[in-house]
């Protein structure tokens, strides 16, 4: 492991830890760690004139390390499985409706603005987590780069503003909050809503996984 790789990994972790502290002290949507750390890392790379190709190996290492963290989402899901199953029917209907509406709105916007098919397909998968979204986009002749961007932007916006929108609309039920964020904002949103409590995180994690499965089937059929 070369020095530049180590420096970039340490820099990324340090920036995230700093932004996490900032968010704890000043809980603003624009100071959400995932958003602020992304902006700061981009600024550092631009200021130091570091090409993305040089930073990419560090990104790959961190992404690989996130695998166990993603699998760890199964722990709160398993612990709260009875609670989730108890509300399974209502949650399932809400998930299907929410995911379908998100896709339909994307396709309507694409039609109104006369967006090409590859872009509209990439936009329609924005609520699925990145690995699933890329597979769906690939099978439907979508643009993989755009699909990844749309997914990341959707997750970031969901994490930044989703919980506050739920607060404004007086939605306080842990099941509803986790389901809403997990369905629309996938992994990034799940990580954010899980800060509120274990139930929110467990429900969001379940919703994220099931949304990916549902969208795979829905977009394949239609």
Description:
The chain has helices at residues 3-25, 33-47, 52-71, 74-79, 81-86, 88-112, 117-124, 130-139, 144-168, 174-193, 198-221. It has 222 residues and is mostly helical. The protein folds into two domains: 3-71, no CATH class; 74-221, no CATH class. The longest helix has 25 residues, at 88-112. The chain starts with a helix and ends with a helix. The mean pLDDT is 87.
Strand tally is: 0
Terminus-to-terminus distance: 46 Å
Total separate domains:
2
Shape label: globular
Low-confidence stretches: none
Please estimate the helix content. Answer: over 70%
- Residue share in β-strands: under 5%
Indicate the structural class: mainly alpha
* Rg value: 18 Å
H/I helix tally: 11
Nearest-integer average pLDDT: 87
Topology pattern, helix = H, strand = E: HHHHHHHHHHH
- What summary fits the major beta sheet? none
Secondary structure: elements and pairs:
Blueprint: H1 3-25, H2 33-47, H3 52-71, H4 74-79, H5 81-86, H6 88-112, H7 117-124, H8 130-139, H9 144-168, H10 174-193, H11 198-221
Short description:
Helices cover 82% and strands 0% of the residues. It has helices spanning 3-25, 33-47, 52-71, 74-79, 81-86, 88-112, 117-124, 130-139, 144-168, 174-193, 198-221.
Key structural traits:
222 residues, mainly alpha, 11 helices, globular
